[in-house]
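Duplicate of earlier report; Membrane dipeptidase (Peptidase family M19) input re-posted below.
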Amino acid sequence: MARKFSDLHCHNHMRAHFHMQEKREAYEKKDEFSPWTVISSNRAGYVKGKMGASYSQCDLVKAWNGNVRLTFNSLYPLERQFVLGLDKINSSDLLNIAIGISTHDKLPLRDLIQTFYMRIPLETVNYVQSKNYDYWESLNREFEFVLMDSGKTIESNKIHTSGILRRIFENEKKRRTKFKKELWAENARYLIPESSKELSESLQNDDEITMILTIEGSHALGTDLLEKDRISIDEISKRIQIIKNEWKVPVFFMTFSHHFNNNLCGHAHSIPDKGKILLNQVHNMNEGFTDFGKRIVLELLGLNENLEKNPKLGYRILIDVKHMSACGRQEYYEHIIKPCLAKGDKIPVIASHCGFSGIETLQDHIENFHLEKDGYADPSKKFNAWNINVCEEDIEMIVKTGGLFGLSFDQRILGITKKDKKSKRNGIELLWDNIEGIAKSAYANPNLSEAEKPKIWKCMTLGTDFEGLIDPIDHYPTALEFQLFSNNLIFVIEQARKNSEAKHLAHLKSREDTEALVDDFCYYNAEAFVRANYPR
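Output:
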């Protein structure tokens, strides 16, 4: 039987939604307004494994043909800072000043950058730049888009080729035949389960993708308006209840912070040095929870101020700590996770699309904020040591709470620097370094019992961040390469377990054991986790 795959964090619908959302009626007339529609990609970018903007990495067709049968599909209203110019230029360099001024959103160069670099249509860029753009409205539109084909079997998908010249000179039928796995799916189906019973039935059906909904960034609730007193915190609370009580299907977890200020909790440094010419994420970066944030995180978890479950707050939406600053994570563990754990309420810690930082504690991260420049690594020089990645303390909390870590496929997050971008390491070696680094950390942690340490192997899975405009590992740019990845992973683990000093691999006695471990990592760990924690 073919190996199945899951992905703890990806955006299966994003490319289609960004492309079609502002011209819905036109696409509906062509019967193309669907999450299954493939926006024809730039194959040159795909073949070269370049940044995932010019080509799709995990649209539903690729997920279907790549045998992804469990996907945690993230809703994400695009943060407006990506398409707006800087309020002020944080540089004395004349070139940076010139670039900063010329790429302001009031000038056409900014639109050209977003259109050609991010491959977002001009109409969408203009809408996000406008005063009419509203995160909450965008979230609801996105939700309706992914829900529209849930539970439906499509005979085949549509393909949309952008640009008049491409439509004239490209033969779509030949392209579809030649690159069938990339562009074409037949009798395909996904289902967003309404209940645990429906979840269980869907997971048993290999002729269906089980889609779990998540949200990336609490800004999606409209928290940007808190800063301007254009919305009350009570209204934000009401929106949480709308999601819990009025949305047809549940949201499984929320990535609480993202790239920019959300007025609830500080975000980790995430934008590389060159990106600062166009983007400023300094406001509230690396800070902890605000008073509003402390209230909202409890309401998402269904807890009152005494950390007791309150049925009136509805089902529990789990918290994903990816992008949350080290200060925020420190507060979250100390004031919520650990006290609840002591009372018998185990709240799983999720880090959905991360790498390993190689750093020991969150306090170490906090003290080293000032070192976070491009190329900043841990003492071993293997890992990206920015606090956007998980440290040993995070791993301890994931194990103790029965949480889940998702391995990002973003080469920069995993530790590739400019100097080794073209090196042999930019492949399975990089991914294995991060997996093994996490496992070794758990086995060496004195705060974990001997019974707890092996559980780390049940707490890791894929969390690619595909369709999040990442620069992927060279050999695995899309979901279609998952099978290749899994075979390569089996090979490197087989080599590694021959080392008698590898205590973290001592339980592997045969190739069959290794294959079972890889099967768990690629699919069954995520399946077990969602079965145990699905909220309805």
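The first helix runs from residue 14 to 20.

Merging into the original ticket.
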